[in-house]
Design brief:
Strand 5 (about 195-210) and strand 6 (about 215-240) form a beta hairpin. The chain is about 45% helix and about 20% strand. It is α+β, with helices and mostly antiparallel strands and about 725 residues long.
């Protein structure tokens, strides 16, 4: 029955209770294995057995295959050469790998980012964006990522599997600091730090003034000190490992956190080990194991550099003595709880290892790349494996052709014994004389010509190589006859070759590189890398990787070849045109954002081979888009419409004004008529009043006259 974690029953205690035993029991299975803590001797024995039994070690077939591939790459003799015969060696392995490498490097380093992190939980979008920017900066700028990728890819194409590891180193280095003008109190606070060591000091006196009571000068002592302290810093690194320095357990199918045993042989100086925190007496007592120095892979790799073998074991400077150590990662139940925990051991020594460090870890720091993985096994195939036999056959054919030419130009002769001066015959010079007693005493031995047949066979083998690798004359730009071929046919041939290379790139991206960047993120978080400042798009940004989520998804960006890049540029330009049309139609507000347009432009720049699009375009971020500039033709039409509307409005205003003027004229005329009528009426009324008044005056006059007459009478 499987018990939940944390609720496992104490089996030993249960058995003791049932049997009534007080003494400690050791659990054994039917084969005699015991669940108990391992002592240091047993741990050393397990580590030594794993190292001796691992794949890739000294004398293994894998090591022989790698040595053979390196020899073929450098075009070194096959070992079947005959003195006096042609010994030319073709370099098919090197030619093929060197044609593939530029395309692979362009695919991975031609853009702004190699890796992108994607959040798994809501609200982690900003973390994922920061992790993407910082990890790309850390890998490409601080870690020399281009060289790391180059070493990984080339090793994989040549030597089957290319191992690497992600690790962090916490080193303590002596730092000198000087403090001037310290008071006694400040000096005391400084010396309270136990990690400080005073290297040099001096005292100076400073007069502050005079005592007002005694008149004595007031003097203060100031201290100048130089101190040494051990400063700790953590570096997270990615390393490409030479295959001969990498070990892995037999029958391993895949390299991951469940792998039983992996190891890396590392040459470190005694000074490096002391800086890593190991005791000096332990480091100086560790024996030097030079066995990895003479591995066949390392010997073959360095044989032409005139730097092999090299050892510093006998140097008088003990701190510079080089010691071969082995970083072992294996699962082992050292505490006897029934679970094999993942441990990292640093060991040294030849026949019996000495354990320098033992740490329980959460993940395996190793990763690997293989261009042609084989199902259900760890070691796959390399490009060199596909064409090494062809290099041998083609070199043999070329040797035979050259030998044949030598024999044709320097023919063997049939001579009659005693009838020819052999000294004259063996001296070959233009216009030379050969003395003979008979005219037919010398005749050439017929030699057949191998040229046509051998050239046909060489051409056939070249086609076989092209079919195996996908690298053709067309992809190399070397076939002059391709000028007479149709563009469509050449494009199909190049696309087919590109697919083979793209498959290798996809395999690299989805296997080794994906794991590498996953490990890089996890190592930064677990190593406690904090408050790192780096330059992002011209601005200084501070990030805290310790707060990130180590389970973020990883996506490796793989670029394209030349032909596909042109096609991608054309497609992106079509997208930009559609975005422009949508904006002009009025749909841009909710269908095309500034970020959408920037993404399209960024893709165009990357496809054109410009790795930093920010040199040409500025990321709008969350800023609102400005009002789009309309099409001039649309502006002209709109202006005509506005002018026509203004003309109609003016005409309407003119008509309205005319109507108002006519109405006003009519009103004025009406008022004028009314005024005239009123004036006429007033005139008539005035005349009537005047007439009445005149009549009244006349009557008054008449009355007055009548009155005077009466009075006179």
């Amino acid at each position: 029955m499987v018990m939940p974690a944390g609720n496992e029953p104490d089996v030993v205690a249960m058995l003791e209770d049932e049997l009534g035993l007080d003494e400690e029991l050791t659990l054994r299975d039917t084969h005699g294995y015991e669940l108990r803590p391992l002592d240091i001797r047993e741990i050393k024995s397990v580590i030594q057995l794993e190292i001796n039994d691992a794949l890739g070690g000294l004398g293994s077939e894998i090591a022989d295959d790698r040595q053979k591939a390196i020899r073929y790459y450098y075009g070194r003799p096959f070992g079947n050469e005959i003195d006096g015969r042609s010994q030319v060696v073709l370099t098919d392995v090197k030619d093929t790998i060197e044609w593939v490498m530029p395309q692979l490097m362009r695919m991975f380093t031609g853009g702004t980012h190699i890796v992108e992190y994607e959040p798994r939980r809501q609200g982690q979008e900003q973390q994922a964006k920061q992790a993407t920017e910082f990890v790309n900066y850390l890998f490409m700028d601080e870690q020399d990522g281009f060289r790391i990728l180059y070493d990984l890819f080339k090793t994989a194409l040549l030597e089957k599997n290319s191992p690497g590891k992600v690790y962090s180193e916490k080193k303590y280095e002596p730092m000198l600091e000087r403090y001037n003008g310290l008071s006694e109190a400040e000096l005391g606070l400084l010396l309270d730090d136990e990690g400080l060591e005073v290297v040099a000091h001096d005292v100076e006196e400073k007069t502050l003034g005079r005592d007002p009571e005694t008149g004595e000068p007031i003097v203060e002592k100031l201290y100048n000190v130089q101190v040494r302290h051990m400063q700790a810093h953590v570096d997270v690194r990615v390393a490409a490992i030479p295959p001969e320095e990498f070990l892995i357990a037999r029958r391993t199918i895949r390299l991951d956190d469940t792998t039983q045993f992996t190891a890396h042989r590392v040459k470190r100086t005694a000074s490096d080990l002391i800086a890593m925190g190991f005791p000096k007496d332990l480091v100086l007592s560790v024996p030097s194991d030079d066995t990895p120095e003479f591995s066949i892979g390392r010997t073959e790799r360095l044989s032409e550099d005139e730097t092999f073998p090299v050892t510093t074991a006998e140097r008088a400077d003990a701190a510079s003595r080089e010691i071969w150590t082995t970083d072992c990662v294996l699962r082992m139940d050292t505490d006897g709880d029934g679970y094999a925990e993942l441990h990292k051991f640093i060991v040294a020594g030849e026949n019996t290892v000495e354990i320098l460090d033992d740490v329980e870890i959460s993940h395996n720091p190793f990763f690997d790349l293989c261009p042609i993985p084989m199902p259900h096994k760890f070691h796959g195939m390399s490009l060199a494996d596909l064409i090494m036999d062809l290099q041998l056959i083609r070199s043999t054919l070329l040797r035979q052709m050259l030998d044949n030419l030598y024999l044709i130009n320097n023919q063997r002769m049939v001579v009659l014994d005693g009838e020819v001066d052999l000294d004259d015959l063996l001296t070959s010079r233009p216009g030379g004389i050969v003395r003979a007693n008979q005219l037919d005493a010398v005749r050439p031995l017929e030699q057949g010509q191998l040229g046509p047949m051998a050239m046909a066979m060489m051409e056939y083998l070249e086609e076989v190589k092209q079919n195996r690798t996908g690298i053709t004359r067309y992809t190399q730009g070397m076939d002059a006859s391709s000028l007479n071929q149709t563009a469509t046919g050449i494009s199909r041939i190049m696309d087919a070759a590109q697919v083979r290379i793209e498959l290798i790139a996809r395999i690299f991206a989805q296997t080794g590189l994906k794991r590498m960047f996953k490990l890089l993120l996890r190592e930064m978080i677990q190593a406690g890398v904090k408050d790192r400042v780096f330059r992002l798009r011209g601005e200084w940004v501070t990030v805290d990787p310790s707060q990130w989520d180590e389970d973020m998804d990883v996506r490796i960006k793989v670029g394209l070849g030349v032909g596909q890049a042109q096609e991608r540029i054309a497609n992106l330009q079509t997208i930009l045109q559609l975005q422009t049309q949508l904006t002009q139609m009025g749909f841009g507000e909710f269908m095309v954002t500034p970020a959408n347009a920037f993404n399209a432009l960024e893709g165009v720049a990357e496809a054109m081979g410009f790795p930093i699009p920010e040199h040409f375009f500025t990321d709008p971020g969350d800023r609102e888009a400005p009002e789009p500039t309309p099409d001039p033709k649309v502006l002209e039409i709109e202006m005509k419409k506005e002018l026509e509307a203004a003309r109609l409005e003016l005409e309407k205003e003119r008509l309205s004004l005319k109507e108002r003027e006519d109405a006003l004229d009519a009103e004025l005329r009406k008022e004028e008529i009314l005024m005239r009528e009123r004036v006429e009426m007033a005139r008539i009324e005035s005349q009537e009043r005047i007439g009445l008044q005149k009549c009244e005056i006349d009557r008054e006059k008449n009355r007055n006259d009548a009155q005077r007459k009466r009075e006179a009478a």
